[in-house]
Specification:
It is a single chain. By secondary structure, the chain is of the alpha/beta class. It folds into 2 domains: 339 residues, Spore Coat Polysaccharide Biosynthesis Protein SpsA, Chain A; 90 residues, Hexapeptide repeat proteins (UDP N-Acetylglucosamine Acyltransferase, domain 1, 3 Solenoid). Helix content is 22%, strand content 25%. The strands form 8 sheets. The chain has an 8-stranded mixed sheet, with helices on both faces. A 3-stranded antiparallel sheet has the order 1-13-14, with no helix packed on it. The protein is globular and about 60 Å long. The N and C termini lie far apart (64 Å). The mean pLDDT is 94.
């Protein structure tokens, strides 16, 4: 079996040699029988790790050597969005990208440091995102770098699938694990080093809890580490997500659900045994990334159909990798426990409702502050009426106040026309075909 068809397809699409070579490594791993599975018998609990709350406050002594990298390749299709998720309005007419830019601009003004903001864009997000940034500049450092697209593979022969009706569905993203080869292969890593930068803080654009922290930066810079991962305690709602564990040789490892065999699922979901999950807030030593071989990340094989909306379309394999998996690939890597407030992602419309409510406020630094230390209320929105962002915006013309709410369940077509105080456990049901308008 040959990689030649994949190579030719990627070359015709204008992809670079480093992108093709990275995908070839994943393809060869697949041919070798690599399934990316991590057996529970090979893993143990993480044990004791450093905690952010134990670090002493710090000044911005290392900021001039630091860059902020945001993963901005997603389109938010799970919310029915057609444009970059980073441009979704979060609060007060401001998007994830707007708030991130304002946070960086505030630190620039406070410290008189350049502090570049770099976006890892995809082919689908680059144009609209750069247009939104307008006159924002990183000086001589580019504003972004591109991740690849890679062929979906036929499940039967591992050759690139053809889908003449919608050829764009022949491609998929390779996962954010490509960040290391993208930084190096694009030449951006060398540009950063030549400009005097040594450290990078990396996080998702939709996690507004992932702000640059002076104590974390100082800890990482003084640690001599190649790589550090921020982790936080798993709760019942996190048990299906990936977790951190320790290999028998003592190295830390990240295991995603797709890397867990069916017979290990009970242990995978055991929050007592596996107490920490990856926030996807990472710290990189840029000198280490340049001087060492690129981390060889395990391949995550996702079984799909070429048209994700049609289960009868051709079965395909999507080869991906997770950037957090590098924790077991770098010689000097560690995890640090942070509070849940540094993990505020927006993966669902329910998450967006929480973020727009009185549970948070924007401070003068354009950072989100939680108004209550208690756990956030559980939100359940009827998927028949709240499946897309347009559905959400039409029905939530005003955002309810949730500070005293324990849970909110909405069943049926309910429209919020004015902001209401929701207290305790609230269930709103409308069995009628016509909308229920509140108040």
């Amino acid at each position: 079996m040959s990689f030649q068809a994949c190579r030719q397809k990627m070359e015709r699409a204008g992809l670079n040699s480093w992108q093709i070579e990275r995908f070839e490594r994943d393809w060869l791993s697949l041919q070798a029988g690599e399934k990316g599975l991590l057996a529970e018998s090979d893993l143990g609990p993480v044990g004791k790790i450093q905690r952010l709350c134990d670090l002493t406050p710090a000044r911005w002594d290392r900021l001039a050597q630091t860059v902020v990298i945001k993963l901005n390749g997603g389109l938010g299709t799970s919310m029915g969005l057609e444009g970059p998720k980073g441009l979704l309005e979060v609060r007060q007419g401001l998007s994830f990208l707007d708030l991130t830019r304002q946070q960086v601009e505030h630190l620039r003004g406070e410290t008189d440091c350049l502090l570049p903001l770099l976006l890892m864009n995809s082919f689908y997000t680059q144009s609209a995102t750069l247009a939104q940034l307008g006159s924002f500049s990183n000086g001589k450092v580019p504003l972004d770098f591109l991740q690849s697209k890679v062929p979906k593979l036929r499940a039967d022969d591992h050759q690139p699938v053809e889908f003449i009706e919608h050829p764009e569905l022949e491609w998929c993203p390779p996962g954010h694990g490509e960040i290391y080869s993208a930084l190096k292969g694009s030449g951006l890593l060398q540009t950063l080093l030549d400009s005097g930068f040594a450290y990078a803080f990396v996080s998702n654009i939709d996690n507004l809890g992932a702000t640059l922290d002076a104590a974390l930066l100082q800890w990482f810079a003084q640690s001599g580490l190649d790589f550090a991962m921020e982790v936080t305690r798993r709760t019942q709602q996190d048990k299906k997500g990936g977790h951190l564990a320790r290999l028998q040789d003592g190295r830390l490892v990240l295991r995603e659900r797709a890397q867990c065999a069916r017979h290990d699922l009970a242990a995978f979901e055991d929050n007592e045994r596996h107490s920490f999950f990856n926030t996807n807030n990472l710290w990189l030593n840029l000198h280490s990334l340049q001087s060492q071989p690129l981390p060889q990340l395990p391949v995550i094989v996702n079984r799909k159909t070429v048209d994700p909306t049609n289960p009868l379309s051709c079965p395909v394999l999507q080869l991906e990798s997770a950037m957090g998996a590098a924790i077991s690939a770098f010689p000097k890597a560690a995890a640090i426990e942070v509070s849940r407030h540094r993990f505020v992602p927006v993966k669902t419309l329910a998450d967006l409702l929480l973020l727009r409510s009185d549970l948070y406020r924007l401070n003068a630094k354009s950072e989100l502050e939680a108004m209550s230390p208690e756990r956030m209320p559980q939100i359940s929105l009827d998927p028949r009426y709240y499946s897309t962002y347009d559905d959400f915006a039409r029905r939530f013309q005003a955002i309810p106040r949730l500070l005293q709410c324990h849970s909110l369940t909405v069943k049926g077509d309910v429209h919020f026309l004015e902001s209401l105080d929701l207290v305790g456990d609230v269930e709103l049901c409308n069995p009628e075909p016509l909308p229920l308008q509140l108040p």
